[in-house]
Amino acid sequence: MVAASSRLAGVRAAVLHGPRDLRVEHAVRPDLEPGEVRLRVTRAGLCGTDYSIWSGDRPVRYPRIMGHELLGVVDAVGAEVTRVRPGDRVALEPNYSCGRCPLCREGNRNLCLGRVAIGIDADGGFAEMVKAPERCCWPVPPGVADDDLLLTEPLAVVTRAVGRVTPHSGETAAVVGGGTLGLLALQVLRARGARVLVVSRSTRRFALARELGAERTHALTDGPLAHVASEFSGREGVDLVVETAGTADAVSDALALVRPGGRVVLTGLPHEPTPVVFFGVVRREITLLGSMIYQDEFAEAMRLVAEGAVRARPLITHRFPLEAIGAAFAAHRDPASIKVALEI
Ligand SMILES: [Zn+2]
Ligand SMILES: [Zn+2]
Q: How many CB atoms lie within 10 A of CB 142?
């Protein structure tokens, strides 16, 4: 009886059974506890985190449904849910913290050791349905298209990173990396009035970067960074750097671009050890900051999109139905791709 009702209530989902073992199959429709919301997923973005989970580089508990960059429509709400109703369009904030520890109580909920990430620690949205606590569901502004909102989650990451180095209007900034995070960081910096230089390994994204507001672009192989940064800024280097590349060299690249007394924020999460000569950090009084996901930046990210200050649509290069998720992962590795989306 239980099996029969589960089957009746089944939904299609891409279930990861182990590294590189991803199968689209029937899964149990999530039941709701008090305070939870079930979403019918409409769009899901695929990112490097999903890829590292898929490949096994980032182990999770199997079976697991990935997917943390999500848009959906509220399908049902549990008891005590008051902020959203069935039929509401929402963007999902996939991280939620314990709310009780000292870090949470002082507002550092992104640093909570008990933080849960939907799509990593709990089942996510590479499926027809996903469930989440009510506080993770952000009703989207009316009239804003799904394509524009799909990148709200990575945009919130970048919005926090940029906020950490408090750009002022007229300051010069460099973005290291020309991927999704870099192209979003560029736009957030522009919205804050900064002039932006984009530095990347490849020239492939430079036309798009310029279209999105980059004043100058520079390929890493095209000469010393310090020279380009001083030429662009008209002084000893740029005022601030947002690192999004996540490579071992990216921190050194950021330090080569910034002026004495400047600020650098790292958000690309280089997992491997990074060779950095700290002498220059001391001698040049560089402020070097980390930035981890977001605290309260989700609403700001949505506002930036609704106001047209950030354009996400040009970053979506590939679209696949859920059934073709294997092709979506292959497309993610294609150097020509920026953001791969599942339309569910
Ligand atoms: Zn992501
Ligand atoms: Zn906590």
A: 7
Find, among 330, 164, 122, 178, the residue nearest to 263 by Cα.
164
Å from CA of 62 to ligand 2 middle? 25
256 C-alpha to ligand 1 centroid (Å): 28
ω into 63 cis (within 30 of 0): yes
Residues 136, 118: Cα–Cα separation, whole Å: 10
How close is the Cα of 294 to the center of ligand 2, in Å? 14
DSSP 249-303: THHHHHHHHEEEEEEEEE-S---S-----THHHHHTT-EEEE--S-SSHHHHHHH
Q: Which amino acid is at 16?
A: L
* pLDDT confidence of residue 268: 83
Please identify every stretch of the chain with a pLDDT value under 50, giving residue numbers as ranges.
1-7
Phi and psi, residue 4, nearest 5°: -65, -45
Query: How far, in Å, is the centroid of ligand 1 from the Cα of 280?
Result: 32
pLDDT at 190: 98
Q: How far apart are CA 27 and CA 21, in angstroms?
A: 16
* Ion ligand 2 nearby residues (CB, 5 A): 97-98, 101, 104, 112
Question: Tens digits of per-residue pLDDT, 157-172?
Answer: 999 999 999 999 999 9
Instruction: Say what the pTM is.
Output: 0.95
123 Cα to the center of ligand 1, angstroms: 14
Give the number of whichever ligand sits closest to the CA of residue 100.
2
What residues does 40 pair with on adjacent strands? Answer: 73, 129
Ligand 1 midpoint to CA 112 (Å): 19
**Amino acid of residue 20:** R
> Which pLDDT score is estimated for 9?
62
Distance (Å) from CA 100 to ligand 1 centroid: 26
Instruction: Tell me the ligand closest to 104's alpha carbon.
Output: 2
Distance CA 66, CA 15 (A): 8
